[in-house]
Amino acid sequence: MAENEKKLVEDITSMDVDFAQWYTDVVRKAELCDYSSVKGCMILEPAGFAIWEMIQNGLDKRFKATGVENCAMPMFIPEGLLQREKDHVEGFAPEVAWVTHGGYEQLQERLCVRPTSETLFCDYYERKIHSYRDLPKLLNQWCSVVRWEKTTRPFLRSREFWWQEGHTAHATAEESRERTEQMLNLYADFCEQELAIPVIKGQKTEKEKFAGAEATYTIEALMHDGQALQSGTSHDFGDGFAKAFGIQYTDRDNKLQYVHQTSWGVSTRIIGAIIMVHGDNDGLKLPPHIAPVQIIICPIMQKKEGVLSKSAELKERLSAAGFRVRVDERDKNPGFKFADSEMRGIPLRVEIGPKDIQNGQAILVRRDTHEKFTVALEEIETKAGELLESIQQDMLEAARRHLETHTFTAETVDEMKSILDTEKGFIKAMWCGSRECEDAIKDQTGASSRCIPFDQEHISDRCVCCGKPAARMVYWGRAY
Amino acid sequence: MAENEKKLVEDITSMDVDFAQWYTDVVRKAELCDYSSVKGCMILEPAGFAIWEMIQNGLDKRFKATGVENCAMPMFIPEGLLQREKDHVEGFAPEVAWVTHGGYEQLQERLCVRPTSETLFCDYYERKIHSYRDLPKLLNQWCSVVRWEKTTRPFLRSREFWWQEGHTAHATAEESRERTEQMLNLYADFCEQELAIPVIKGQKTEKEKFAGAEATYTIEALMHDGQALQSGTSHDFGDGFAKAFGIQYTDRDNKLQYVHQTSWGVSTRIIGAIIMVHGDNDGLKLPPHIAPVQIIICPIMQKKEGVLSKSAELKERLSAAGFRVRVDERDKNPGFKFADSEMRGIPLRVEIGPKDIQNGQAILVRRDTHEKFTVALEEIETKAGELLESIQQDMLEAARRHLETHTFTAETVDEMKSILDTEKGFIKAMWCGSRECEDAIKDQTGASSRCIPFDQEHISDRCVCCGKPAARMVYWGRAY
């Protein structure tokens, strides 16, 4: 290892020493995210935003394939509009930012910067929906929203964050429930297939559900440190918002009916999940499907004749084969470039120097396993494709193993505590369904209910907390 | 014409009767844009946002081909940061929205909602740029910005609008000037090639330039009513912002230097230009290159066996050939569908009924000329492609002719007035360069200086206003 390489790698705190500091180091050194001069707001730097663009493209295609269309709502909500649905305003009012002045004049009515846009979509739907022919409405927007959080962390919790929010309106309760589940499944598939993150699908408890929803579904992922991260949610509103906003349509029998609605969202939080599920002590580790750069070409002895031109030629060939490729031509030694490419999480590295060129070969190095492969240049496209696909699958497998080996069962709260303090991870335990037990568990263990999973198991007959009969199994965990 | 068709078309005010009302009718009936419950803020409806998405995709590819990377800055600017560059704050402070409270607490420092993000990028660059190796920085973001306008109109002027803002930092004044021009040319090419809108390229006068810029370049388009629309701007900041924000780098000789910066933007305003350059009394007319739906298939007698399945088959084939296609399967008569598709500006219509199927043909109708073509089904992909390309070129030609026949020259202010009141359009006239004459012309004619065009002509020796010697020819016009 070259001197520079060592130094670069040593700059990242070991995740076993201090996971939180490791996370911050990766975010900062891979230049994903920077702090801004606005307290609690972050800057998505090009490397971080490029990941978000990949996620946007991937999700957007999947949304559109289900009939969803994009639109753009205003970023402001008049105070009166926010207050129309009682539970909703109670949930969000404590954490919104208020605009009180436009230019030099005080506004007649305060405007909040949207923390989420249910009220705006409802207001719009009330005007647009008249007949069953106008249904369903399947809209989505990509935007940022603002919630005035006290403590913030890059990607995980910030006062402004980027997301998509889908808002749909349907003729019947069945249709809105189906759409809620459809979008949750879409999120789960996307996480597994593209982000290589396995997730638990389930329903939130009454305590944890979205303000104003009838039911909230969630996908929960497990981070490397054993903490959970809620990675996407899908809400079934029933006709609650429709009644608050008067969204009615005439059905085929000419009767007036309320619509049934859903909303669903995934945010830049998910980038935090990518970092904390896949990263290691060398830095970031990006799944090939969503890595903005999939292959980095590192020329060795690049001042020797032919090395840079061969690197450019390989870039050309690999790009033509459909890969996202970059050449690191910087005036740095190879050791530095290797460590740098690993720190930035690029899935596959191609090393090529004068000797390699002479032998008609290159060295390919996997980011995930550090395995090296000597590959004949004429086969480089095929081999790179195979390796990238292996990396994608192996990263998913590794994450799946981690999830499995860090999912436990418990029959008492003491057991829960001991697991959370030592082995760390998800705990499956039975629950009687009472808010009292949910609160008590949180107080005693620091773990919240993550979800009532769709895949139920029978751990025991009794609630882990009160010992009364319990029919439902819940995933519990300490969470970001 | 069927009864329904007539009715639909009659709903759009004739552009000769009331151009402003025609514009509003098109915007509303084509469902591009809706008013929101926030005064002065608009909703981009799916049909309008889809056009914006096409523009985003097209421009974004062109930006990235020049090395630009995307990022995301916060939407808020602390008051102190906004005030760092004197001219800039003077230009924008009167029209910004202020956030004063987060949750239930008053903020220690007010935050404005970004009217533009120079100050945020400068703050970031000050931290990120140290050495000549860090240059150039070529960043862009797609977002919405807020300017508290008094009077608003859909797309043309609203309190919140969507745009992209590019912000670059360079080692030298030459480089920043080159980038400013490069982006202006990129915008002009995009307008002509994709939007079929010819533009005049030039420099803004001192009076009209961006707050804080050394030079502002602009592309100006001419609407159907003879009014101008500023359609994109590119600003050269020199080292003005760098000095205000202390953005310095060490050059190759280890000397400390200020960077030179640019910024450039195109907004949803440009959708207003598409409407007002191409639209007619039947409604919207979209250039095929950026039409979200390029081909609409209207089944005739769709309840007859085989019509809907043949329509679906044609959709499949045309989609596979790379076109954006939709079938109008609604339970409406053909006349309504034809008028509806024209009103929504879809470039090419395919009409297919039982007789056509029997004869192995379909009718293709151009939106721009209403020309009809009987086309053998086996040739439909080729013919559709040819027609779409003809439409694109002919729309550009038509817009070019309109621009040429509505560009006049004048040697006196009286001549200017008379042209602006009767024929309407751009006026080329000489200018001495004084602010007094510029103001006087505006007062007397209502026309502002649009730009000092790069392509200069010699109209006369003297300023159109004061009669003193004048070396520069200026485009003048009433403007949106």
Written overview of the protein:
- Two copies of one chain form a homodimer.
- Chain A has 480 residues and is an alpha+beta fold.
- The first copy, chain A, is built from 15 helices and 23 strands.
- Chain A has helices at 3-10, 19-29, 46-65, 79-82, 86-92, 118-128, 173-193, 240-245, 269-278, 307-320, 334-343, 354-358, 380-405, 413-421, 435-445, and strands at residues 33-35, 42-44, 69-70, 76-78, 97-102, 105-113, 137-146, 160-170, 200-203, 215-222, 228-238, 248-250, 256-258, 260-267, 295-299, 325-327, 348-352, 361-366, 372-376, 407-409, 426-431, 448-453, 472-477.
- In chain A, the strands form five sheets. In chain A, strands 3-7-8-14-11-10-9-22-23-21-20 form an eleven-stranded mixed beta sheet, with helices on both faces.
- In chain A, helix 14 (413-421) links the parallel strand 20 (407-409) and strand 21.
- The longest helix of chain A has 26 residues, at 380-405.
- Chains A and B meet through strand 2, helix 3, strand 3, strand 4 and strand 5 of A and strand 2, helix 3, strand 3, strand 4 and strand 5 of B.
